[in-house]
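chain below, 255 aa
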Amino acid sequence: MKIISYSIFEGVANTRTELTDYIIEQAPDVLCLQEANGWEENDQQIAKEFGEEIGLPNLVFGVSNTPYHLAIYSREPFIDTEVHTDGILHCAIHASVHHGEDVLHLWNVHLDPRTEDDRLKESDLLLSLMDPDQDQQVLAMGDFNSLSPRDDYPDDLLEDLLAQGVTKFGEDELRFDVMENFSSGGMTDVAQEQGTADWSVPTPVNDDEDHAARLRLDYVLANDKALPIVQSAVVEKNDTTDQISDHYPVVISLS
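prediction:
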């Protein structure tokens, strides 16, 4: 099974054709999108047409508390879907699909961009909903807007961020509370576990000051049941993904 997680800058109105072509070429079985801005209009017309174009006809659209909506597309029908908005700035989508003889629980998330404390509250809520200790496969992916303590950032990163007015990652020191919370809660950072961790912002088309430094904000997390089935989780950088959004996509392969 192939899954792509992609934060598409505010609905990529100017590069939607490029996004469509890229997804068709990649041919994933599941696609998780963050920032599907405007795709909810006219009874989700854009979202539905996009699914038809890319050959993923099954859609759960997460209407957020903000304009930053989420979506999960699947080649095969979903077993069950839920959209969570309570206690979350945007929203989170939970969708379960068949994976061989097992059930795979997918979570598409876009955490609060404001402060680590705001995201930490969301992470507590999400962990309680995900139930990582369950005897089924759980994968969470998306834009976590958070830094990992296991990533090798330069000593002067905080100084550089503050000089650009970016305080979301800490003011007195870099904060890693959110990703540490997911880890201690039973969700493993797959890319770090496999040695493939790579920065996911910025791209050449970035105009967000929060992405002015090379940061890894896009993750794939797995519980103990799902970790063995993840063959790879790679940030894909090429001439095409340079131009589509301000984030690079994460491409996940499952056995």
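The CA atoms of residues 123 and 178 lie 6 Å apart. The mean pLDDT is 98.
thats it, cya
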